[in-house]
Amino acid sequence: MFKFKLIIGEISFSFLFDQTFSFPKRKSLIGLVCVSLVLTSLSYAKFDIESAVAIWLFDEGNGEEAKDLTENGNDGKLLNGPKWVDGMFGKALSFDGVDDHVEVSSPTGLPAGANERTISLWFKWSAVKWPSPGVEIMGYGANANSQRLGLWIDSSHALGIETCNYGRVFPWGGDTDWHHLAVVYPPGETSTTKFKLYFDGVLQPGSDIGTAQTLNTASSPLAIGVLPTPKVYYFNGIIDEVAIFSEALSEEYIKNINKRGIVNAATVSPSGKLATAWGKMKTQ
Predict the structure, then answer these.
(1) Are residues 100 and 91 in contact, defined by beta-carbon separation less than 8 angstroms?
(2) Distance between CA 37 and CA 110 in Å, rounded?
(3) Prediction pTM value
(4) Is the distance from CB of 4 to CB of 32 less than 8 angstroms?
C-alpha cells in the first residue's frame, strides 16, 4: 500500500493507495484500492481565564463605559469621545489621536512591582506617523522611572513597552493593518530587559532604549489610548480586546490568542469567578 499525506492550511488529507496504482494518459486512476480522507483539526492550547485581572472586550457597542469582564470591576470611562466601531472581534473603540481615551483612575488587582504578568491587545493604526518620542497604546502606573508599564509605538520605528525613560522594543515599519501585541514578564525576574514581546503571535528579538531599570510598576492609574499620567502621546486608531493577566502566559497560549481571540482561546471552570459572564460572551 502507498500512503500520501497532503497538508493545506490547518487540514491534513491522508490518501491510501494500492502500491501498483498508475496514471494513464486518459487520466483515470487504475489500481485504486481505497481512498481515505481524514480531516484533522489543528488543536489549540486553551488557557485558564481565571488569571485575568482585567478584560475589556469593547463589545458593548454604545455608551460611555467600557466594562471589565472580571470581578475586579475595572470599568473604564470613555473620555472626549472615542467611537464605537467594528473591531478585530466584535466591536472596538476608535481613538482620534488628539484627546480620546479610556480611563480607570483606581484599578484593582493589576500586577505591581516586579510580579509576573501578561498584557494582550489588538490595535490598528489609522495612519503611519512617527511623532516624537512616540505613541502610547495603553498603560498603567505612575510617572516615574520603572513605575509605569505601557505598550508603546516608538518614534524610532519600533514597537514594544516603555517603563518611563526606558523602552524594550523591536523594529516595526508601521502599517494600518490589524495586529496583535502581547508582552509577558516572567516570574522571578526584576530587570526591565526581561520582557518578552510578541507580535502577531511571534516572539520578537527585543532591544533596549535607555538604561535598564528594576521593574517596580505602580498599580494605578490606567489609561487606554494615551499615557496614563500625564495625559500625552495619544494613540490614533482602533483598539480591541485589551486583557491583563497576573501570570506569564506561555508562547503557546499567546499564539492561540493571536489566532482565535480572547473569547475562543480561553477556558473557564464552571465554578470559576468568570463562569457566568464568560458564558454570556460565548453565546453572543
Answers:
(1) no
(2) 49
(3) 0.82
(4) no
Provide the grid cell at 61. 457597542
Closest CA to 126 of 92, 161, 95: 95
Q: Dig out the grid coordinates for 55 from the structure.
A: 478584560
In single-letter form, the type of residue at position 52 comes to A
The span from the CA of 123 to the CA of 133, in Å, is: 19
Helix (H, G, I), strand (E, B) or coil at 219: coil
Measure the CA–CA gap between 115 and 126, rounded to whole angstroms: 33
Question: If we measure between CA atoms, which residue out of 261, 277, 241, 264 comes closest to residue 73?
Answer: 277
Model confidence over 155-196: pLDDT tens digits? 999 999 999 999 999 999 999 999 999 999 999 999 999 999
Residue pair 213/192 in contact (Cβ under 8 Å)? The answer is yes
CA-to-CA distance for 90 and 194, rounded, in angstroms? 33
CA distance 138 to 161: 10
Of 81, 78, 52, 79, nearest to 67 by C-alpha is 78
Cα 36 from Cα 43, distance rounded (Å): 21
Q: Cα separation of 151 and 160, whole Å? A: 6
